[in-house]
């Protein structure tokens, strides 16, 4: 896919932010800089992309839910995460959680 891609590692699933009402227009894609925004969520199932499209403006949005992070699941999710990021080939990787 041509264009710029941002990959966002979320601290909280988007469904949690949506439920709290913390949805901001183009927050994850200021000035519509990116053509595609891929979010990686650490939960079993996140919100439908159409419900929060507004947070990425005109970019194509995709959310990947990798599962809940636990001490046991961490190594398995880390392997899935690395494979997914290599497949996405983002221009930028943004994380909201230092861990």
Task: Characterize the structure shown.
With 99 residues, this protein is an alpha/beta fold. It has helices at residues 14-20, 74-88; strands at 5-9, 36-41, 60-65, 92-95. The chain has a 4-stranded parallel beta sheet, with helices on one face. Strand 1 (5-9), helix 1 and strand 2 form a beta-alpha-beta unit. The protein is globular, with a radius of gyration of 13 Å. The relative contact order is 0.26.
Number of distinct helices: 2
Q: Shape from CA axes?
A: globular
Q: Give me the strand/helix succession.
A: EHEEHE
Beta strands, count: 4
Task: Write down the overall mean pLDDT.
Answer: 93
Question: What's the helical proportion of residues?
Answer: 10-25%
Indicate the radius of gyration in whole angstroms.
13 Å
Task: Going across the biggest sheet, name each strand in turn.
Answer: 3-2-1-4
Q: End-to-end span in angstroms?
A: 30 Å
Tell me what portion of residues adopts beta-strand conformation.
15-25%
- Low-pLDDT ranges: none
Instruction: Please outline the major beta sheet.
Output: 4 strands, parallel
The helix/strand class is alpha/beta
């Amino acid at each position: 896919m041509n264009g710029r891609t941002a990959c966002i590692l979320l601290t909280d699933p988007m469904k949690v932010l949506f439920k709290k009402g913390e949805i901001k227009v183009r927050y994850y894609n200021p000035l519509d800089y990116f053509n595609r925004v891929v979010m990686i969520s650490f939960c079993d199932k996140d919100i439908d992309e159409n419900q929060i499209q507004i947070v990425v403006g005109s970019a194509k949005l995709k959310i990947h839910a990798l599962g809940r992070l636990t001490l046991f699941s961490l190594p398995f999710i880390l392997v899935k995460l690395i494979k997914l990021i290599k497949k996405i080939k983002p221009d930028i990787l943004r994380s909201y959680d230092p861990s």
